[in-house]
Design a protein that fits this description.
By secondary structure, the chain is mainly β. It is built from two helices and 20 strands. The strands form three sheets. Strands 3, 4, 5, 7, 8, 9, 10, 12 and 13 form a nine-stranded mixed beta sheet that branches. Strands 1, 2, 6, 11, 14, 17 and 20 form a seven-stranded mixed beta sheet that branches. Strands 16-15-18-19 form a four-stranded antiparallel beta sheet, with no helix packed on it. A hairpin with a 6-residue loop joins strand 15 and strand 16. This is DUF4382 domain-containing protein. One of its GO terms (molecular function) is carbohydrate binding. Keywords: Signal.
């Protein structure tokens, strides 16, 4: 991935920041897979991405693969995703723990276009059967958002067969050279309020940026609240409760991308 989720076509692991949630008991981590590209000597390299799968164990058991919901299955020109651009392929919540591998399953409509405008089918036999497998060995922490950027090296991945005969429509093979880069890209803020019946609106305002970023959620019926996908920074957290309860403000709340900051209990009485 050069965002990610999940070829220098940053397979969707370059997460689009996870949203807010008032479900404080979700006990999940978020993973996104992105596709990105490192350019080669072509005007287009189009991959027909049909599935993105992850493997959550350290074995090669085929039953361990899980298919992620894709934003759009189909053709991606990896050369569109250079200079920091990427395509979000998939995004899903997962139980905390280890994810060992990621796999891309390609369809049959893959091709390259050379600089002179000639189009050639791109043969990808293994990608259409067992898929393109990559080791990622990522440990997912509850409520933290991760991206998996798949950095596809076009120059090394497209191999010319035989003597380079331009009339040979099977001239090019795909032997993918891909880096999988896993990064924790956002943390979170959680806590609880009393009384539990208050269900206040909770605003997290990032004071370390200009203009300030604001995220919001509500406490649930148990009094718990959780803001997910919170970028690293310093925040002011404001609680807006119905009368006769009081509004409360907490300042100087530090958030990192690798953990969820726990505010503990906030008394609104």
């Amino acid at each position: 991935m050069k965002a990610t989720r999940l070829f220098p076509l940053a397979v969707a692991a370059l997460l689009a920041l996870g949203g807010c949630s008032k479900d404080s008991s979700s006990n999940m981590a978020k993973m996104e897979v992105l596709l990105a590209d490192a350019p080669g000597d072509f005007s287009a390299v189009v991959l027909d991405v049909q599935q993105v799968q992850i493997h959550a164990t350290d074995t090669n058991d085929e039953n361990g693969w899980q298919t992620l919901p894709m934003l759009k299955a189909g053709q991606y020109n990896v050369l569109d995703f250079v200079n920091g651009r990427s395509a979000l392929l998939a995004s899903a919540d997962f139980p905390p723990g280890r994810v060992s591998q990621i796999r891309l399953v390609l369809g049959a409509n893959n091709y390259v276009v050379t600089r002179d405008g000639t189009r050639y089918a791109l043969k990808t036999p293994s990608a259409q059967t067992s898929g393109l497998k990559l080791k990622i060995d990522a440990d997912l922490t509850q409520d933290v958002t991760y991206t998996v950027l798949l950095d596809f090296d076009v120059a090394k991945s497209i191999v010319e067969r035989g003597n380079g005969n331009k009339a040979d429509k099977d001239r090019f093979l795909l032997k993918p050279v891909i880096r999988a880069i896993t990064t924790a890209v956002a943390g979170g803020i959680k806590g609880s309020v009393t009384p539990t019946t208050a269900q206040p609106q909770v605003l997290a305002i990032r004071t370390s940026t200009v203009p300030n970023d604001t995220l919001s959620t509500f406490a649930d019926a148990s009094g718990g609240f959780l803001l997910r996908g919170v970028p690293a920074g310093t925040y002011r957290v404001e609680f807006f409760a119905p009368l006769p309860l009081k509004n409360v403000v907490r300042t100087g709340i530090n958030v990192t991308n690798t953990q969820v900051t726990n505010l503990g209990n906030v008394d609104l009485k």
